[in-house]
Amino acid sequence: MTTRTWHGGQLRWNSETRAWSVLATGRRDRPHVGRAGCPFCPGPGEDTPPETWRLSGGDGWLVRTVPNRYALSDRHEIVIESPRHDWDIPTGTIAETAAVLSAWQLRHRTLRKGAAQVAVFRNHGSAAGISLAHPHSQIAGLPVLAEHARRDLETAREHHAATGRRFADDVLAAELAAGSRIVFADEQIVAFSPFAAVADYEVSFLPRRPAADFAAAPPETIEALAHCLRVVLAALQTELGDPAYNLVLRTAPTGYEDAPFTAWSLQLVPRLGIAAGLELATGIPVVTVAPETAAARLRARVSPTIAS
Ligand SMILES: [Zn+2]
């Protein structure tokens, strides 16, 4: 029975599945609070640990990062994405979302020191595990590399050795050639429903010029990504109401920032609550809407006003 402690958290190794799980008992105590008593809203009720970073603007802050009080480890931070309790990506400006993505880049560079990987994610809606409605995302350094990340790295390395190209280069070329799974694309970013999606209405976001390290992406790519996220999330809301989702950053693990074979991407996974039993029983995701259908529906919902 192998355990590892890491900055206040504990990891346990499952030697049968060869996978780590995180034990973070403090997370059970996470408060479920509404707007009244929100600790992230500026004002007298604001209640967070001392901030680690802020982007100032207006007469206060626009984005700030604080240690997560209900942390997986003490390398776990919250990005408070806006002073506004009801802010969201589809209704916010591109600059506001770009500022959040820039915060991800900055804190990623700091939190990856001494960590094997840094998880970056945004949960939206209670079905996605949200306990606090104020818009926020999370950045957590981990001392081990998840098994699926190790596998992805191996696949990418073998692909590069055999072809001289990144795996993502070929995915992008195939998706652009097929066209049927593209949700939205501009000169910088391509958003598409993956061929073998893991969830209904899953969307991947890849830069046209794939690169290993998200934290090193230039400002024009970050701005384009913010625009693309806004377009796709607005389309998703129009098509499905306001579904819960997890938005996950996939980027090079620590030490692979300059690797020629790996590539960063964003993965949007709506939580529509379908077929969870079969997935648990077999480990195989079940999708009930064909990715080609999902992409066509989302494409049809792209608002010309938002997309322009
Ligand atoms: Zn709030």
Please supply descriptive tags for the structure shown above.
alpha+beta, HIT family, subunit A, 2 domains, binds zinc ion
Task: Write a structural description.
- With 308 residues, this protein is α+β, with helices and mostly antiparallel strands.
- The protein folds into 2 domains: 10-21 and 37-142, HIT family, subunit A (2-Layer Sandwich); 151-307, 2-Layer Sandwich (HIT family, subunit A).
- It has helices spanning 94-111, 147-163, 167-178, 219-240, 276-282, 291-301, 304-307, and strands at 3-6, 9-14, 19-23, 53-57, 60-67, 76-80, 117-124, 136-142, 182-185, 189-192, 203-207, 245-250, 265-270.
- The strands form 2 sheets. A 10-stranded antiparallel β-sheet has the order 4-5-6-8-7-12-13-11-10-9, with helices on both faces.
- α1 packs across α4 (219-240) and α4 packs across α6.
- The model has no long low-confidence stretch (mean pLDDT 90).
- Zinc ion (ZN) binds at residues 35, 38, 40-41, 85, 134.
